[in-house]
């Protein structure tokens, strides 16, 4: 991070109520239209930063740093509740500050606290940013630790052994994990049915082993009063195997409109959700792109090389009963005919069972029918493609929140 980090300059302007100006190629403008943010220096001059300049404040949920425009937007709208702040930020094309960071970040920017654990900056840079004198000379960039020699370690071994002989070990790290019940019966049962060399490893599919199960002692009831015989496995410990396609059945499902007039279709949904760029459907069709019946969206995750998978379709004609349980998002064009052959009767009922979204250009008004449905409106700018990333990021946050709240069995 630069020694003149915009985080501390912004904090100084917020505390002392100094003016902050925004500029683009045409001159002074609003933050939503700006490309640069201008601050006033103590000497009377000015300093400008690009609005997407990363600051020294790291996000709690990832290793990324907040851009300057997100912090300026928070400072200017800190009186709003988080829901309104989120809505206004998306409308302005600004990635909002996470709910986890908003309280501590506001306290730092307003001067209520002097530091925060999420601020990542070198000590010398921090002193300069806070107006303190820096050191006369730079510290070495690489520090070689002074490890003790092997001879010094060996000299201490007798003393260490003498101390250990006088100690009485009462427990260790693994003692709380050890139970007191005898689980030998369960271990034996699992070894017979699931372990290597067990009876299921050698029994052909479709044939049931006639080997009796392990003994099981329980209080007899009228429905379980019969004694287990050697020719039939005991019903007290049934073998339950997950279906082979269980992982495939846990991939979330998304539906987009089949209408060519929709902003989001099977042609451009992969570019929008995966590459975070909106490309008009007509452009892709003119390039000769073919429409697929099903797409797989790979959503990259920070710190995890394995992406999250989502299936996308535009029709429910081939839906199985289990597919409705995987449905997490529906993009609508505001027309009731879009929902023919659906499991539920009308759009209002549909959006009580699944999360709904309506994609429109930011300068358009939503349809009257959409305003009566429980759907979230996604605003896409006609020309400013740099805003797409913030819009898609907010969309994925909404999908994650819906899955965690209503369908946790689909969560990664």
TrEMBL record:
Residues 195-246 are annotated as: Disordered. Residues 249-401 form the Cell division control protein 73 C-terminal domain. It is found in: Nucleus. Gene3D superfamilies: RNA polymerase II accessory factor, Cdc73 C-terminal domain. InterPro entries: Cdc73/Parafibromin (IPR007852), CDC73_C (IPR031336), CDC73_C_sf (IPR038103), Cdc73_N (IPR032041). Residues 58-125 form the Paf1 complex subunit Cdc73 N-terminal domain. One of its GO terms (cellular component) is Cdc73/Paf1 complex. The keyword Transcription regulation applies. PANTHER family: CDC73 DOMAIN PROTEIN (PTHR12466), PARAFIBROMIN (PTHR12466:SF8). Belongs to the CDC73 family. This is Accessory factor associated with RNA polymerase II. Residues 232-242 have a biased composition (Pro residues). The keyword Nucleus applies. Coiled coil: none annotated. It comes from Dimargaris verticillata. The gene is CDC73. Residues 200-210, 218-229 have a biased composition (Polar residues). Pfam families: CDC73_C (PF05179), CDC73_N (PF16050). One of its GO terms (molecular function) is RNA polymerase II complex binding. It comes from the Eukaryota. Keywords: Nucleus, Transcription, Transcription regulation. GO terms for biological process: positive regulation of transcription elongation by RNA polymerase II; transcription elongation by RNA polymerase II.
């Amino acid at each position: 991070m630069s020694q003149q980090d915009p985080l501390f300059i912004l904090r100084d302007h917020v505390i002392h109520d100094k003016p902050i100006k925004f500029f683009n190629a045409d001159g002074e403008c609003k933050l939503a239209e700006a490309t640069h943010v201008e601050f006033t220096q103590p000497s009377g001059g000015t300093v400008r930063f690009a609005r997407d300049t990363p600051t020294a404040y790291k996000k709690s949920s990832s290793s990324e740093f907040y851009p300057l425009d997100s912090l300026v937007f928070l400072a200017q709208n800190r009186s709003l509740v988080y829901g309104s702040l989120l809505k206004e930020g998306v409308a302005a094309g600004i990635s909002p500050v996470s709910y986890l960071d908003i309280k501590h970040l506001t306290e730092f920017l307003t001067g209520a606290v002097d530091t925060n654990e999420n601020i990542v900056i070198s000590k010398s840079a921090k002193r300069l940013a806070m107006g303190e004198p820096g050191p006369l000379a730079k510290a070495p960039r690489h520090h070689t630790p002074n490890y003790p020699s092997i001879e010094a370690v060996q000299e201490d071994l007798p003393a260490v052994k003498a101390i250990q002989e006088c100690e009485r070990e009462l427990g260790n790290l693994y003692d709380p994990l050890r139970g007191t019940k005898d689980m030998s019966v369960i271990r034996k049962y699992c070894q017979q049915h699931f372990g290597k060399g067990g009876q299921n490893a050698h029994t052909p599919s479709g044939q049931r082993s006639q080997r009796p199960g392990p003994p099981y002692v329980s209080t007899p009831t009228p429905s379980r009063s019969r004694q287990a015989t050697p020719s039939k496995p005991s019903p007290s410990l049934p073998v339950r195997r997950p279906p082979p396609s269980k992982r495939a059945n846990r991939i979330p499902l998304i539906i987009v409109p089949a209408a060519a007039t929709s902003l989001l279709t099977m042609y451009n949904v992969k570019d929008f959700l995966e590459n975070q760029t909106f490309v008009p459907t007509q452009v892709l069709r003119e390039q000769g792109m073919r429409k697929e019946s099903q797409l797989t969206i790979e959503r990259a995750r920070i710190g995890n090389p394995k992406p999250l998978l989502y299936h996308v379709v535009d029709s429910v004609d081939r839906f199985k009963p289990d597919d409705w349980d995987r449905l997490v998002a529906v993009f609508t064009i505001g027309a009731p005919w879009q929902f023919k052959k659906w499991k539920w009767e009308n759009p209002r009922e549909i959006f009580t069972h699944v999360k709904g979204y309506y994609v429109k250009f930011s300068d358009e008004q939503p349809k009257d029918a959409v305003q009566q449905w429980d759907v979230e409106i996604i605003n896409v700018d006609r020309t400013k493609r740099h805003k797409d990333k913030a819009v898609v990021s907010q969309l994925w946050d909404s999908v994650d929140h819906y899955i965690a709240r209503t369908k946790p069995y689909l969560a990664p």
